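Milestone M4 deliverable, item 7.
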Amino acid sequence: MTGIILDSILMMLLVAAIGYGVKLERKLKGLREGQLAFAGAVKELNNAAGRAEQALATLRASGAETDLLHDRIIKARQVKQELEVLISRAPKQAATAATAAARAPAPVKEEEPLELVSTMALVTEESERARRMASLMQRIEQASAAMPAQAAKPVKEAENGGLTGMLQALAANQAAQQSLNRARRSLDEDLFAA
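Output delivered:
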């Protein structure tokens, strides 16, 4: 009988051990699932950190580009102000240049050093344009003088104020257009330089 009692106690202990083992297995299974979920969360966090680093690098590059664009905008505003001043002065300078070119004798060409050639080319180009405008004014005046006497009277009256003013306006418009085009080219080069 004692054997049966000992056997029954042993069976109860075995049943309790099996129950505890099943319970422990469930807890371990839950722990493994939690560990896998934690590993997935760590991978997602790692990916998110990588994306954040890339976004930060992009943001820094954008900041540098923004600074560059801001500098270019400031420079463009300065060029715009300079253009406005040049355009406001253009009619006066064009009239002065046209009369000076008409009075000045043809320049004598001398050999110049290579360094001065590029800067002198710009000055020569401007003086050449002024000389052509003066020449055009002289041709128009000669053509109006060569007209028959009856057609010349209204032209002479208009020539005193109208023709000269119109030629000066044309010269001023040409000079303003040239300086505006130069400034635009310079601005484009500055803005789109790599």
